[in-house]
Amino acid sequence: MSGPAAGTPYWGPAELPPGPELHGVVTADVAVVGAGLAGLSCAYHLAERAPGLDVVVVDAEHPAAGASGRGTGLLGPRAGPAVDRAVRRFGPRTARRMHRASERAVRDVLELCTRLDVPCGLRTGEQLVATRSAAGLAALARQARACREIGLDVPVLTPAGIRDRVGVPYRAALVHRPAATLDPAALTCALARACAGKGVRFYGGSPLLAVHPGDLVGPELVLPHGRLYAGKAVLAVNSAATALALPVGTVLPLEVYAVATEPLSPAAYEALGGRAGHSVVDAVPMAPYFRVLPDRGLVAGGGTATVPAGLGAARLRAAGERAWGRLERWLRSLHPDLAEVRVTHRWSGRIGMTGDDLPVVGPVRGFDDVWYIGGCCGHGLALSVAHGAHVAAALLGDPQPGEPLPWHRSRAPALPVRGPVRPLLRAYVDTLGRVARHTC
């Protein structure tokens, strides 16, 4: 996440491996562009499994500077559309495989945290997808029915069951496991340090300007002060794909928002799931969510998104002020003890959305030996790590197990994001936000 309205995230800075700017001509076996979770996961798995491979990571800023360091730390199973829509679009067998893959991705992150010994405030707990509205209740009923039909273990909670976990008057909830909460910046920086320890070279402050098919040694990556020639390249650049004119379909940049509070009273902390570390996500699209923090504060996000394309810095800042104000009002509605709680951090940043809610993880058409990862649609904490491992295996020539998942593809659907239709797209996203806020 980045952008003019970015603000200061709750997550503090971490010690990072040195990353000088790339100058002159540099060569590598594999170049990874993007030092977020997807790119670093790819670099880590390459270095882990092929110790002699020369891997270079290049970033426009530094590790964890983007979405991976500015998220809200909700680790839960979700890949693509809600399970009932996945069943309608892909059939029950594929929908089940999609959900199982997202559960595996969560377990892999938990295992990675253990392996790296990450001091990232990791707390395992349940993720509740809950609702206080009639529209959300209908959505949860459809999802619960679909889960039963395809054999997924996703329990339904009554209001009494919810009260045992969080003291907010929700009408129903689905329980997703495995799930956890953590500091995403700490995990990202731990991956960077692990990569550096395995010999991966880092260059920071070096935004990618262009990619050209190579004549002899693979792709050529053009940077402000030099060129990087690699046998293979991985572009873990998310929504920056549009600015680079990569032929990966539309990965739409959206600015999303979050706030964090001072420590809560003991009563509010326990009422909002503090002891067990639960997180709660509302059931309607783009709806708010919350989780507690290790210092007994609370993080809330969602409810509003902004299409930043075509907005100047002043208008984007104004949109951020409105979004943060709505989030603060919503979190104060959760519990009486939150009426006067002080908000200590407000931040925002960019995620990548696609027209069908599915990521894009695959080779870039027209470019030999270039792969792209992006478009996790706000569910990137577990999926990004999984995507990086998947691409590393593909680059090393490992056969991919089973059939491809729907997001193992080279392109997302095209969306009309330029010209006179852009205001319509912005109005559509604004409408989703208003509907979400009304139904919460």
Automatic annotation (TrEMBL):
Tree of life domain: Bacteria
Occurrences of domain FAD dependent oxidoreductase (ranges): 29-393
InterPro entries linked: FAD-dep_OxRdtase, FAD/NAD-bd_sf
Record-annotated membrane-spanning stretches: none
Protein name: Oxidoreductase
Lineage, uppermost ranks: Bacteria, Bacillati, Actinomycetota, Actinomycetes, Kitasatosporales
